[in-house]
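Researcher: Let's do a round of design. I'm pasting the structure tokens now; please hold your answer until I've finished.
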């Protein structure tokens, strides 16, 4: 992991020189304390807290995930994210600058996904595909995916890049899939996922306005009233024969009782 890209993903690229001057690499991140960050010149309490939270998320993220050997049937929550306005961005930036922006953006997405126990399955240009519920299943995977979606659009919106202010779009869907054979090798290795769920998440992401999270019906049902929503009604999505219900997630719900919110 590149320290500069990681800091940029947190919107804290200003500290890259201090980290490099003091020989802080990825292996040393996990041992940094608040006092160490002060010595590095991180004077803001908010910036220190953000860095410590991000380091904790890195520690909790699976680094060497063991993928199951055979295809299996799973309930999976799929998150698709892309960078809004990427075509215009590519037309006005030098390729090297664009590469840096994309690296910063991907690092921010990966950080948010890992923070909530998800698994980044694939990078596709400015698109990111993530799974919640595979290869490791957790309690409330649908909720984790929605929280990750909200976190990443907020995080990407405050990134400091040469491309200016960035915006992202997220689509989330939940359903039964068959996670199949391994495709590719090395860093490009991924699991083929068969089912309607990935396609539904991708279509929702495509229709989402910048800086919004859209969820399909099954995801909405699983997360209950833990969040506030804008009911979009039944929407027509390319490639689907019938309109499907969709909701825009606005943020955390004011409901205090978690049990009641989930039901």
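Researcher: That's everything. Go ahead.
Model: Designed sequence:
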């Amino acid at each position: 992991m590149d320290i500069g890209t990681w800091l940029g993903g947190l919107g804290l690229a200003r500290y890259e020189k201090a980290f490099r001057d003091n020989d802080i690499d990825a292996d040393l991140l996990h041992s940094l304390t608040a006092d160490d960050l002060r010595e590095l010149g991180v004077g803001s309490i908010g910036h220190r807290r953000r860095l410590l939270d991000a380091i904790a998320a890195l520690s909790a993220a699976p680094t060497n995930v063991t993928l199951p050997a055979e295809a299996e049937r799973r309930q999976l929550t799929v998150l698709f994210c892309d960078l809004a306005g990427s075509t215009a961005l590519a037309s006005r930036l030098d390729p090297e600058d664009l590469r840096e922006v994309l690296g910063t953006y991907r690092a921010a997405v990966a950080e948010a996904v890992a923070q909530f126990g998800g698994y980044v399955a694939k990078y596709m240009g400015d698109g990111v595909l993530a799974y919640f519920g595979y290869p490791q299943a957790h309690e409330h995977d649908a909720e984790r995916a929605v929280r990750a979606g909200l976190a990443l659009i907020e995080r990407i919106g405050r990134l400091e890049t040469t491309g200016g202010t960035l915006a992202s779009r997220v689509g989330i869907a939940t359903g039964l899939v068959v996670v199949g054979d391994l495709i590719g090798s090395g860093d490009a290795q991924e699991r083929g996922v068969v089912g309607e769920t990935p396609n539904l998440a991708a279509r929702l992401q495509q229709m989402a306005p910048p800086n919004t999270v859209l969820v399909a019906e099954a995801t909405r049902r699983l997360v209950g009233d833990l969040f506030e929503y804008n009911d979009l009604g039944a929407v027509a999505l390319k490639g689907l024969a019938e309109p499907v219900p969709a909701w825009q997630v606005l943020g955390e719900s004011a409901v205090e009782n978690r049990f009641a919110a989930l039901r």
